[in-house]
Structure formats: structure tokens, C-alpha cells
Write a structure and sequence with these properties.
The chain is an alpha/beta fold. The chain has three helices and 24 strands. The strands form four sheets. An eight-stranded mixed sheet has the order 6-9-12-15-18-21-23-24, with helices on one face. Strands 7-10-13-16-19-22 form a six-stranded parallel sheet, with no helix packed on it. It binds coenzyme A (COA). Coenzyme A (COA) binds next to loops.
Amino acid sequence: MTRLVIIGAGGHAAVLIELFRAMGGFDIVGLLAQSGPAEVLGVKLLGDESRLEALRRDGVEAAFVAVGDNAVRARLAGLLQGFAQPAAVHPAAFVAPSAVIGAGAVVMARAVLGTRARLGRFAILNTGAIAEHDVVLGEACHAAPGSVLCGHAALGARALLGAGAAVRPGVRIGADAVVALGAAVTQDVPDGARVGGVPARPLGA
Ligand SMILES: CC(C)(COP(=O)(O)OP(=O)(O)OC[C@H]1O[C@@H](n2cnc3c(N)ncnc32)[C@H](O)[C@@H]1OP(=O)(O)O)[C@@H](O)C(=O)NCCC(=O)NCCS
């Protein structure tokens, strides 16, 4: 059993607790967060991230950041030196043999990571999301539940593709961009832009 600490104590952390239990092979020793309930699904809150070094000295081998906010997750990921950083792949996900998954990334139940697709470090491919062949998902990005990236599309670092949104083949969404839920993205989205609608246009324009 690999001893694992999870950073986060919200809804996303609860999902990861059940996901690591479904994977098997992990002993979840506790959660770290600035605030939160004393316990989540039977896993105790041990304190905040300042406990990491003591846990490492106590023999905790692995750490996982389970925080939904992309920028916060990217920042916390920088604290994990010295720990193994496993990817979390639900047994009910489909990952193509030629796909590549970065450290600390998660593939949720019923998600599909297609042929030669690449999921960046600390990225989230959420429940039922589909990243088709040759899609590139950047570091700490999030493809929300039911979203679809068609072949050769790309989602930039820390970008959010909202629930149920779809991206045309080969279209690139920039770093830190936000795509509203239900959007149809037919052309490239610049870094940091916020778009939504069918077809997707800048929000508030
Ligand atoms: C795009 C989004 C981030 C905007 O949220 P917000 O910052 O709170 O902004 P508001 O709700 O005030 O909306 C801002 C504008 O965008 C519009 N808008 C919001 N959501 C939209 C959508 N899904 N499609 C089209 N337009 C949308 C609003 O109508 C509003 O337009 P207005 O300025 O003309 O009134 C949010 O609606 C969204 O889609 N988030 C993604 C949720 C998601 O999938 N999370 C993953 C969970 S696992």
C-alpha cells in the first residue's frame, strides 16, 4: 500500500478519496487544507500544507492535490517535491494505450482519453469528458463533466472547459481561458479569454 496524503477537503477532494479507493493500493493517511470539516468520507483533516514536510519524514510517500480551482491547484502542486505524485485514473475510465498522463493528473469515471492524447500534469479530465485522438491538455487545466475535445484540439494550461462544452477539431484554447458550460468552440480562443455560447463568442462583449 502506498501511503498518500491529499491536499484539499472540498467536493473535489471527496471525489478523489473515492477514486483512490476504487483504484486500490493506496492508504489515504489524511487531508491537508487551510479550513474544512474535521473529516471527509472517513479521512481526517490533519492541518494545512505546512504539515507536508513532517508527513514526508513520517514515511508518507505520495501526495495528490485535489483542489478544483486551476490556478490554486497549479500553485499547490509546486509544494510536492520529495513525494511520489501519482496520476489518478478511475477503473471505469477509458485510456488509450498510446495516451500519456502526467503526474498528479486525474481521469474520472466514464472519461475517455483517446489515441495519442496527452493529459498534462495536475490536469483534470472530469466525469464523462472526452479528449479525442491527438488532443493536448495543458498543465493544471480542467475539462469539466461531459465536455468534448475533438481530434487535435488543445486546452491550455490552467484553462477551464465548462461542462458539456464542445471544441471543434484542431481548435486551440489558450492558457487561463474560461469556456462557459454548453459552449461550442469553433475558433481558437486567446490566452485568458472568457467565451461562451453557440458558436462561442467573448462573454460580456
Ligand atoms: C462562464 C462562467 C464562468 C461565468 O460565470 P460568472 O463569472 O459567475 O459570470 P456571470 O454568471 O455573471 O455571467 C457573465 C456573463 O456571461 C453569460 N454567461 C454565463 N454563463 C454562460 C453560458 N454557459 N453560456 C453563455 N453565456 C453565459 C451571462 O449571461 C452573463 O452575460 P451578461 O454579462 O450579458 O449578463 C460560468 O457561467 C460557467 O459556465 N462556468 C463553468 C462551470 C463548469 O462547468 N464548472 C465545472 C464544474 S465540475
